[in-house]
């Protein structure tokens, strides 16, 4: 590994827990300069060859929905300070878009996603593991609003998916990974004390490189 290896921070937690909000708040504090965010969602398996009816049947909360091999390959390139072509995910089409974004390595890489602590190969790459822990009632309310506004869903479809898939998969696969976290942040984005502590830690790491 190179001496100036980037620091990798994992931010896990259930859907709607506030992972993206925590990550974005931290990123803004550092004015984007030294932090690169790698969203596990962008590494859902490519489904462009499947018809839409089939894409709608996919279980997006199961570990097998993700192409972690590609995510790991990209993280290893970033660790070597090489640029990567990051996929772009389209939640409305339920697949990767045909675009990729070329991203340059940065000193701090935040890997964010529901199931990043489920794969030991991913965890092995992380220097710090954070779990955003938010009650289920709050998570579903946030997800309802977000999915209808931003992900092209209906009220009925969000409730149906949550009841049949998101909730059982959360209990089976996501909640148990909380035990791997170094830090558990209750309530996510509004927890300014936790965000301040994390930002201070990152600042210390960056200034001692
Ligand atoms: N503390 C909060 N208070 C109110 N809304 C929030 C809070 N944290 C997140 N949200 C909103 O809830 C939704 C889900 O949050 P997000 O950060 O995307 O969660 P995740 O990435 O864990 O799915 C978003 O629309 C976000 O703006
Ligand atoms: N085509 C897709 C892909 C993913 N989802 C849901 O997204 C959730 C993970 O994203 P968060 O930002 O909420 O952490 C996950 O629970 C999937 O159910 C989807 O609905 N459709």
From TrEMBL:
Give UniProt keywords alphabetically: ATP-binding, Cytoplasm, Kinase, Nucleotide-binding, Transferase
Question: Which InterPro entries does the record cross-reference, listed alphabetically?
Answer: P-loop_NTPase, PRK/URK, Uridine_kinase, Uridine_kinase-like
**UniProt xrefs under SUPFAM superfamilies:** P-loop containing nucleoside triphosphate hydrolases
| Associated pathway | Pyrimidine metabolism; UMP biosynthesis via salvage pathway; UMP from uridine: step 1/1; Pyrimidine metabolism; CTP biosynthesis via salvage pathway; CTP from cytidine: step 1/3
What EC class does the entry list?
transferase
Q: Which domain of life is it from?
A: Bacteria
Q: Where is it located?
A: Cytoplasm
This enzyme's EC code(s): 2.7.1.48
Annotated catalysed reactions = uridine + ATP = UMP + ADP + H(+); cytidine + ATP = CMP + ADP + H(+)
> Example GO molecular function term?
ATP binding
Q: Which GO terms describe its biological process?
A: CTP salvage; UMP salvage
What range(s) does the Phosphoribulokinase/uridine kinase domain occupy?
A: 8-193
Q: Which CDD domains match?
A: UMPK
GO CC field: cytoplasm
Record-linked Pfam families: PRK
Binding positions (ATP): 13-20
What family does this chain come from, according to its entry? Belongs to the uridine kinase family.
Q: What is this protein called?
A: Uridine kinase
**Organism for this UniProt entry:** Saliterribacillus persicus
Task: Give the encoding gene's name.
Answer: udk
